[in-house]
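Render this sequence as a predicted structure.
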Amino acid sequence: MINRREFLLWLGMSGLTLTQGLEYLEQNSQKDIEEKIYNMPKDIHIANYTADSVEGKRKQGGVGFFVNDYYITTAHICQSLEQIKTKTPFGMMDIEIDITNKEMKIGEVPFEIMYENFHTDVLIAKSKGRVYKNLPAIPNRSDVKYGDKIYIVGNPALQGTNIRHGYVSDLDGMTDKLGDREHVFGVDFSLFGGDSGSPVLNDKGELIGLGRYDAANRFGYINKIGLYLDEIERLKGVVTKPIHERKSRRN
């Protein structure tokens, strides 16, 4: 970032007006931010979850990333180990099953799930033997506004990175059955299976949330980053053993 003296010197040499100079700097600043966002996939990791059940070995994968040295993602990815689709007189439904020996790994590195809350859809884990790079984006817990431009570094069907952008279109959630409305906001484009846990950034390149769920195949809903920051602060300051909050499950 150039200082005031350097800017005025450059402005005089370029022959641009003050307005033209400011517009030029703004455009280039936005290009730098987008370049940073488009380089983020290398700092997003697929975690694999496994467990034993009477139905056999259960497996699931999903994306997440590191903030303040903790791996964060959405809890429903892991929770799917405890559900199996079954045909009923009312159509296909998710039926809960018992599981044992639940494990989480990134590659061959085991992780401990430190916090799991199916009501707010938050999962926070810690590596048992390796240090990972945090996502290169400053978390911003400030409230979003209608019309804010946002980006998601997604991974539909876990088949590879798909970066999309759109605008904040909903501030109070389409339904509260998946958690408190104040914890989510909506965007004007769809999320797909595999996008859960993907980072969502504003047009300053700041981290503002994680992809959570899709509605009507048209609108995406995002978990606010504050949900995770609050729990990470608690984990770092107080908690000495994993916390699993299951009293309110995702339907």
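Summary. The longest strand covers residues 56-67. The radius of gyration is 21 Å.
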